[in-house]
Amino acid sequence: MVRAVASATVNRYAASTSPSTAHGWEFRRLTAPSRLFGANGLRTGPDGRIYVAQVTGSQISALDVTTGALDTVSATGGAIVAPDDVAFDDRGNLYATEVMDGRVSVRETTGITRVVRDDIPSANGITFDRGRLFVGECREGGRLLEFDLAGGPPRVILDDVPSPNAMEVGPDGLLYFPVMGANEIWRIHPDGGDVQVVATGLGVPDSVKFGADGCIVSTQVATGQVLRVDPRTGTHTVLAQLSPGLDNCTIVGSGADARLYVSNFTGEITEVGPDGATRTTLPGALNWPLDLTVGADGRLYVADGTYLYRVDDGSLTTVGMLFSPGYPGFIRGVAAGPAGEFVVATSGGQIARYRPTSGESDFLATGFDQLYGIAPALGGFAFVEQGAGRVLLVDESGTVSVIAAGLDTAVGVTTSSDGGVLVAESGAGRVVRVTPSGTETVVDGLERPQGVAVADSTLFITDAGDKSVVAVDLVTGMRCSIATGLAIGPPPGVVPKPLRGMPPFSGPQGPFAGITVGPDGTIYLSCDGDGSVAALRRVERS
Question: What does the mean pLDDT of the chain come to?
Answer without folding.
Answer: 94
